[in-house]
What does this fold into?
Amino acid sequence: MRTPLARETLIYTIARLLDGVRHVAVGASSPMPAAGAMLRRALNEHEKREQVRISILGSVEHNFFTNGSVELFDCAGQGRIDAFFLGGGQIDGAGNVNLVGVGDYPQSSVRWPGSFGSAYLYFVVPRVILFREEHSPRVFVDKVDFISAPGTSEPGVYRTGGPYALLTSKALFHFDKERPGFTLESVHAGSDLTDVTEATGFSFEHAESPETTPGPDDIAFDLLRGRVLGELAETYPEFATQMRRDIAAQSEPALKTMGMRS
It folds into this structure.
């Protein structure tokens, strides 16, 4: 049985979350979302389904924009981007994202890069996937210190976009806009409900025994370790190289065991 790396499970989960999208946009410093989008495209082509267009800011090969974020915002406002990814220094149970800093603004004790276009894209992109590898109470808080991008809006506010899912190194959550709030969908291998609850600063709904997040099947495995890593190397060479090293390191014990048996 093939055992995926933890990051391969995350990439495969992103690909599953992108099922059905036609156009996905990815920020300039998002190698795993980019890999997930590439895997979704490869899976669609393998299954002879509708083609997926990927726009990765900063990429030459995987970006049809010529004027960077200006065209991205125009395209999103016209309803021609189906999915996007947002991270944050803080994310709370209402789906609010903080990209500004810790403490009372403007006297923040810690400052982050800033909001940029996060609020705008949060309003106009239908499927915004919140992605943050670190899963800890300092990231997932009860209430963010500053709202860079609001998870929900008051009744009567026209809004086509918003949070769709939250993916971390421990678990996958889906967002219920009616409640509003997060529901635990599945827990990754190596974690459990207690682990996730203790690492999360906001409350969430969950089953008594949550499901385990599935890893890639054989087809996704082959595409991920072959075609996708090759495509990823154009925009994120260091990440692709590190993934290959991790795969090689994982394979070494098995190869040694096979050598001892032969």
